[in-house]
């Protein structure tokens, strides 16, 4: 490679005071003169953190990447970014996805990096790194951390997240003792890595692979498997070739690549969180993507992967069955096979030899788990800008339902009353959680899968319809409507629902409606007042001033490449919150 083609050349090449200092300081780390002989500088963007158990093994993964970079003649330089752990961060790691994306983008942009390897794992670390990388648009390849080992207890298998919800309900209903519950705690998460079911982390890893941003097969290799290190090493070698070929993220993540990702999302029964993350990624690239695209592709894509919470198997099983390449091979006729991937081959070339080794895990097209994809998009007078529901993890008898609302103003109100003996709830009720959206949460936390009230659990009722403007863990299940837009905190229709109102859910017709007269709706809107903002300073203030709604991916308005003008014309949005409208110039 001609050294003049390298981005890092501006830092290290030639005679001058600045280049003298740059080289001297790199040499202070113990490098010799050979590192400046024209080799590309490869950044290793590491989201390792002991506060993020999913990513705690990424130091070792980074060492494997370095081996690969050195083998290919590059200079590997590791750097940290903030790390987002879904379990420990409050109010939600989603609050900080955009901050991490900014961190990744600016560290790539500000440093002498010719290519970058993105090391991710937990839910938001993967979309955040992808968002930052596409904005910086330096050759990039992703290595996800992989799922933890399947949990085992008393001869059975357990899935992180999914079985936590189920077991806690069993404790609340008296089916499981507190002692047994605490015993499970010691068996539940038995290695590093992200949740081993089809939660958000598994889903977003699959999205990265489906878009061509990882080497084939990267998604499902268990975190503790030596093949995780082998693919990391191979990725280190590959990124050097990407620098030579000018393979930028914007060349890989195209509109067709995004469509492939959505197809795969539907085929694997992926997390509803994929919707908001893929919308944000498309926004960074200025690519047209709307909620209707998800629903359109869902209707013609069968769900063929039998993993919790839609099925009963785990990520290890998916890996042994052939992984994401085998899934894509099974639905190859639905995919754009000529799109470019990070290894320089087309998607079709990458999956041509893929095989399914276990049809109980990856079903045949003619015997799918479900005939349609996992996620559907709803609209109606309660969700004029859209809402989503994971139909493959819902109760079939509730997908066409009409019931009276039981309303919780916020999460604190919900926890104060959900198990009250006098809560006016029946199995036909619709639980409504307000103020769980991007501004209301704040940060759009995973509060959408409200617990089933104790009085119903005790009566053997395991599921009821629940609706909110928040999100739901990809590991969760139930008949739960999420991402309602516009949210309650800005006066969206959800803010005006009252106890006893009739709500109708009609998934087959993609409808969610509040059955009141428009005159009554207007009366309630006229009396509405916003809650006080959660933050008046710092990053929280920045978030509240600039976050977009769920139907646009919850990115910051100033980071989106091409926001339609009608979506930007939202002075009333900010005025209604009692704050100045931010300067978008």
Structure in a nutshell:
With 585 residues, the chain is an alpha/beta fold. The chain is 35% helix and 12% strand.
Sheet-strand content, in percent, reads: 5-15%
The CATH architecture of the largest domain can be given as: 3-Layer(aba) Sandwich
Largest sheet: 8 strands, mixed
User: What does the oligomeric state look like here?
Assistant: single chain
Query: What average pLDDT do the residues reach?
Result: 92
CATH topology category name of the largest domain:
Rossmann fold
Helix content: 25-40%
Q: Give the strand order of the largest sheet, numbering strands 1, 2, ... along the chain.
A: 7-8-12-11-10-9-13-14
Counted beta strands: 14
Q: Using the coordinates above, name the CATH class of the largest domain.
A: Alpha Beta
| Structural domain count | 5
Q: Indicate the low-confidence ranges by residue numbers.
A: 562-585
Label the overall shape.
globular
Could you tell me the radius of gyration in angstroms?
24 Å
Q: In angstroms, what separates the terminal alpha carbons?
A: 40 Å
Notes on the protein architecture:
- By secondary structure, the protein is of the alpha/beta class.
- The protein folds into 5 domains: 1-35, no CATH class; 39-149 and 191-351, Response regulator (Rossmann fold, 3-Layer(aba) Sandwich), CATH 3.40.50; 151-185, no CATH class; 375-527, IlvD/EDD C-terminal domain-like (Glucose Oxidase, domain 1); 538-575, no CATH class.
- Helix content is 35%, strand content 12%.
- It is built from 22 helices and 14 strands.
- It has helices at 9-12, 17-27, 58-71, 97-110, 125-136, 162-172, 178-185, 200-210, 226-245, 249-252, 255-268, 273-285, 291-299, 315-321, 323-330, 347-351, 411-417, 454-457, 518-527, 538-546, 565-568, 571-575, and strands at 41-46, 75-80, 115-120, 140-144, 151-153, 156-158, 375-380, 383-390, 400-408, 430-433, 465-468, 480-482, 502-506, 511-514.
- The chain has an 8-stranded mixed sheet with strand order 7-8-12-11-10-9-13-14. The chain has a 4-stranded parallel sheet with strand order 2-1-3-4, sandwiched between helices.
- A hairpin with a 2-residue loop joins β7 (375-380) and β8 (383-390).
- α4 (97-110) runs parallel beside α5 (125-136), α5 packs parallel to α12 and α8 crosses α11.
- The longest helix is centred in the middle third of the chain and has 20 residues, at 226-245.
- The chain starts with 8 loop residues before the first helix and ends in a 10-residue tail after the last helix.
- 54% of the residues are buried.
- Residues 562-585 have low confidence and may be disordered.
């Amino acid at each position: 490679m001609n050294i003049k083609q390298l981005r890092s050349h501006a830092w290290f090449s030639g005679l001058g005071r600045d280049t003298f200092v740059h080289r001297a300081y790199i040499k202070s780390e113990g490098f010799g003169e050979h590192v400046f002989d024209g080799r590309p500088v490869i950044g290793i963007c590491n989201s390792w953190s002991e506060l993020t158990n999913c990513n705690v093994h990424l130091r070792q993964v980074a060492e494997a990447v370095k081996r690969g970079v050195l083998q290919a003649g590059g200079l590997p330089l590791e750097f940290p970014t903030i790390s987002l752990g879904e379990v420990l961060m409050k109010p939600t790691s989603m609050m900080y996805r955009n901050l991490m994306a900014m961190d990744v983008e600016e560290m790539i942009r500000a440093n002498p990096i010719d290519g970058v390897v993105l090391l991710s794992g937990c839910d938001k670390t993967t979309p955040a790194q992808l968002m930052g990388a596409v904005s910086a648009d330096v050759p990039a390849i992703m290595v996800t951390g992989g799922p933890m080992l399947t949990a085992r207890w008393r001869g059975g298998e357990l899935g992180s997240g999914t079985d936590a919800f189920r077991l806690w309900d069993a404790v609340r209903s008296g089916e499981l003792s507190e002692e047994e519950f605490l015993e499970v705690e010691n068996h539940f998460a038995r290695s590093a890595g992200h949740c081993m079911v089809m939660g958000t982390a598994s889903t977003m890893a699959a999205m990265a692979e489906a878009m061509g941003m990882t080497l084939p097969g990267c998604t499902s290799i268990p975190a503790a498997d030596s093949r995780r290190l082998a693919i990391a090493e191979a990725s280190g070698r590959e990124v050097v070739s990407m620098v030579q070929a000018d393979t930028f993220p914007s060349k890989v993540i195209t509109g067709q690549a995004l469509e492939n990702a959505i197809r795969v999302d539907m085929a694997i029964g992926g997390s509803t969180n994929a919707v908001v993350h893929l919308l944000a990624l498309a926004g960074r690239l200025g690519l047209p993507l709307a909620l209707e695209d998800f629903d359109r592709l869902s209707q013609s894509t069968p769900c063929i992967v039998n993993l919790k919470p839609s099925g009963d198997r785990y990520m290890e099983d998916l890996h042994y069955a052939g992984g994401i390449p085998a899934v894509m091979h099974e639905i190859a006729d639905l995919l754009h096979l000529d799109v470019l991937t990070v290894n320089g081959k087309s998607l079709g070339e990458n999956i041509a030899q893929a095989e399914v080794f276990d049809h109980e895990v990856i079903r045949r097209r003619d015997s799918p788990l479900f005939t349609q994809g996992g996620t559907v998009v709803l609209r109606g007078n309660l969700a004029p800008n859209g809402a989503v529901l994971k139909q493959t993890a819902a109760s079939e008898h509730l997908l066409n339902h009409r019931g009276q609302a039981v309303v919780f103003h916020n999460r604190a109100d919900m926890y104060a009353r959900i198990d009250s003996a006098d809560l006016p709830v029946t199995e036909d009720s619709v639980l409504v959680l307000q103020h769980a959206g991007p501004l209301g949460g704040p940060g759009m936390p995973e509060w959408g899968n409200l617990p089933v009230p104790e009085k119903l659990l005790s009566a053997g009722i395991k599921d009821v319809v629940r609706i909110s403007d928040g999100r739901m863990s990809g590991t969760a299940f139930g008949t739960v409507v999420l991402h309602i837009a516009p949210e309650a905190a800005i006066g969206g229709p959800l803010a005006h629902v009252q106890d006893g109102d009739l709500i109708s859910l009609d998934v087959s017709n993609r409808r969610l409606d509040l059955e009141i007269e428009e005159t009554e709706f207007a009366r309630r809107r006229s009396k509405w007042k916003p809650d006080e903002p959660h933050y008046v300073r710092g990053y929280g203030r920045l978030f509240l001033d600039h976050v977009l709604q769920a139907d646009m991916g919850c990115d910051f308005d100033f980071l989106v490449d091409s926001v339609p003008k009608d979506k930007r014309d939202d002075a009333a949005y900010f005025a209604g919150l009692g704050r100045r409208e931010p300067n978008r110039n």
